[in-house]
Amino acid sequence: MAIPSGSGTEVLKRGYFKLSDSTETAILTGVANHIYTVLSVTFCETAGSTDPETIGMHLDPSNAGTEYEILSRQNVVLGANATFVFNDRLVLSGTDRLKVRAGAGCAIDIVISFIDQDWS
Questions:
Q1: Residue 52 banded pLDDT, cuts 50, 70, 90
Q2: Which has the closest alpha carbon to 98: 80, 116, 118, 75?
Q3: In this structure, which topology does domain 9-118 adopt according to CATH?
Q4: Three-class SS of residue 66?
Q5: How many other C-beta atoms can be found within 10 angstroms of the C-beta atom of residue 97?
Q6: pLDDT at 6
């Protein structure tokens, strides 16, 4: 994507998801000529499970299938009714995807907040 030189819009947005299995889920799917700044991602275990839940998050630039780990499932563990907040800033552009994965049989709510700059 070229450096924007014209006018565009900048909107604060959010998304919300429920994870219940180990299926990989895209929580932010980019569109051409957009720049996204992720402000925070909140993960909350909702079942009160005595077995800890693991979560992972990775970036797939241009949705090309090459994934870069941001949070390792081995290092991020949610206990019963626990919350984990990822609030490092991430920048995605164009068709990048931000994806998460948890363990099988999980019950996790996810809320993401981000800035969407539209230069189309």
A1: confident
A2: 116
A3: Jelly Rolls (2.60.120)
A4: coil
A5: 19
A6: 65
